[in-house]
Amino acid sequence: MSPSEPVPKSLHPLQVAGVTEIDTVMKLGMAHPMGPLQLADFIGLDVCLSILQVLYEGFRNQKYAACPLLVNMVTAGFIGIKSGEGFYQYSAGSKELTVSHRFS
């Protein structure tokens, strides 16, 4: 499996709910202005990975270990808004959120 291929359902960390559902639950249920996956795209998945690596190296606690999906996405260059694709796809001039084809 290469990082640019769709994630097989058996390896998909979002098996319980999709990208849209996770973000919608957090926006509506927790009154957040955007969901965690949209926020990660906004921050940059590369930045999120870097933060996790620093936390893991500092605390040596598995809860800070980056999941393989995040590592694969960053390695493949899908780092969110900066690259035009992360959990969502982004196009210039559009504010519409479209889930990346990898997760639909």
Can you walk me through this structure?
- With 104 residues, the chain is mainly α.
- The chain has a single domain (17-99), classed as N-(1-d-carboxylethyl)-l-norvaline Dehydrogenase, domain 2 (Orthogonal Bundle).
- The chain has four helices and two strands.
- It has helices at 19-30, 36-43, 45-59, 68-76; strands spanning 88-89, 98-99.
- It has a two-stranded antiparallel sheet.
- It is globular, with a radius of gyration of 14 Å.
- The two termini are 18 Å apart.
- Mean pLDDT is 88; it is low at 1-12.
The percentage helix is: 40-55%
Task: Tell me the CATH superfamily.
Answer: N-(1-d-carboxylethyl)-l-norvaline Dehydrogenase, domain 2
Q: How is the biggest beta sheet arranged?
A: 2 strands, antiparallel
Please report the distance between the alpha carbons of the first and last residues: 18 Å
